[in-house]
Amino acid sequence: MIRRLLVANRGEIARRIFATCRLIGIETVAVYSDADAHAPHVAEADYAVHLPGNAPTATYLRADLILGAARKTGADAVHPGYGLLADSADFAAAVIDAGLTWVGAPPKSIALLTSRLESRALLADAGVPMLPAFGEPEHVPGFPVLVKSDVGSGGRAMRIVRDRDTLADAFAAVRREAAGLFGNGTALAEPYVERARHIEIPVIADSTGGVITFGERECSIQRRYQKLIEETPSPAVSPSLRAELCTAATAVVRASGFVGAGAVEFLLAPSGEFFFLEMNTALQVEHATSECVSGFDLVRLQLLVAEGSPLPMSTPPPVRGHAIEVRLCAEDPAYAWLPSTGRLHRFHVPDVAGSFRPLPQPGLRLDTGVDDGSAVGVHYDTMLAKLVAWAPTRHEAARMLAAALTRSHVHGVVTNRDLLVRVLRHPAFRSGNVDINFVDRHPEVFAPLLSSVDAVRVSCLAAALAGAAARRATSTVLATIPSGWRNVPSGAQITVYDGPAGPVEVGYRLERTGELAGWWVRAVDPEELDLAGLGAPPLTDDHPPVAVVSAAPDRVVLDVNGIRLTFGVHRVHDVSYVDSPEGSVALTELPRFPRPSELTDGSLTAPLPGAIARVMVVPGQRVRAGDLLLTLESMMVEHPVHAPSAGIIASVPVQPGIHVAAGTLLAVLNPD
User: Fold this and answer.
1) What is d(CA 609, CA 574) in angstroms, rounded to the nearest whole number?
2) 357, 328 Cβ separation under 8 angstroms
3) Segment of 299-313, 490-504, 517-531, 618-632 carrying the highest mean pLDDT
4) Order of all β-strands in the sheet with 583-589
5) Which of 234, 368, 403, 572 is the most exposed place for a label (fewest CB within 10 A)?
6) Main-chain dihedrals φ then ψ at residue 570, nearest 5 degrees
7) From residue 15, how far is each of 18, 28, 110, 452 by CA, in Å?
8) Is the CB of residue 293 less than 8 Å from the CB of residue 390?
């Protein structure tokens, strides 16, 4: 029996495992890096051990430190969660050799299944359908193909190749990336299936030979081969196809000697054929969807299996309704999915029914590793939370999830929230017409929710009125007089914000009664800001008629063309986060007298904080447009910095290994 469990992970998955442990009476041990010292998973554990440092290679990937923490705290079992060391056969073996219970697959099964090449021959003999694989460029007979690493997950080290001219370069790039990411530079190519869907079968197997499948999960909404939205059941899978997929998944489990919880992943072609992709040998991010529709706690089943008990059921559980999960990530889809870091000033999702365990009835489930005030740093994955909607039908689940995301308050970092809502409400998604290239084929999902001109303008007006109300609330002189009041008609109140599309100027004038006499919002050139209001446009300037119902520092109610709207305004320093039923926007108030920029023409700056990984150029070197100058590592992803034009490198004030903040000067390029 497991008495005290150490979770060799962090964030959301650590909290998820702790929740089940508390429910069934197992004590818990957390490990944490410097950056995670105040993280929620640390506070929720019975015991916690510090792993000095921040980088995963110095902390959460150090098997010796984690085993030392287990010995120090008297833990008798280790759960790896997902990611990090969860797919490491060496770590699993080390845990077992230390005399601890390993809550995961046997090391031999992990080693076999995490190698795509090694698993193919065994599984082909077991009758599992799969695509042919080619280990060298000269062996590839036709195109298109997908070149990918032999090991690893998360959609990294992959390239689509459509002609022979670029095949060798793709193999070389994948081998280089795989060696750096996974310590194994082996690559292979397989035919690329156009318009394919990503279908997986979650499974759990015990040591007595029992194997249970939990239906299928559709994971086709992806970016860069990484999942964004998962659902169960799939709208593309019929009962007969489901039976075939589950039979193939069971064959994979039995042939590999797998024990524990995992998922067998397949490609589903438009023709209805399916092909084995790989098996994930750990609990997956999207396991919550299977828990919703089955009613089973998969972490509890993992712990039972690890203790040597047989599974409590002999047949797959029936599917109850439909569940859809989204991964809310700190990244900006509109800017090449650039990660976002900073302080999470507010994190609130409305109407959540439960967290970290199966729901007793349909509703919203939120599993997250962050809360108000959490720091989102550069060292770990971008995912902030998983939000799951469980409902009787797919339509109801998508509608519930989109509405909850729209009304959520996520302040402090840029997220993919708007894109997720756009996808959930897209007619093609609602009809079930999806594949792994859905996001690329529908660029309209990249538009912000708050995209209409009038909606943006009114949100800006609400921010300005809330700011004025805040100043009046803290004023020590004539505090009862309405903001902007004059004895005789005078100029408008002017505020300038830096918004998502650049600087905007907000002007308004109030009557003696506090009623709005007129207003405008216009885009402005940063070098032509008119803070004095001189030359301002007419106060009516084709804007919808607006009446102020109430204006407080944190809440503004406006009557817009006969429709009453409420705006929540959360101001942090110079930034106002404005939330409304139509969407959210962050507005940074610009100073009245901005300081001149210290950057010269040709300056290339860091797009986000991170560590300099590689520097490819030196001062005096001539480069072409598009040449790789250096790379920046942030949130476990390497981000390239390319030359915007041809020219000569004037200076490179950074070197590998140093950490830089967003906006730091990386290089100066003198264009030809």
Assistant:
1) 20
2) no
3) 299-313
4) 516-523, 502-510, 493-499, 583-589, 575-580, 563-572, 555-560, 546-551
5) 572
6) -120, 110
7) 5, 10, 24, 39
8) yes
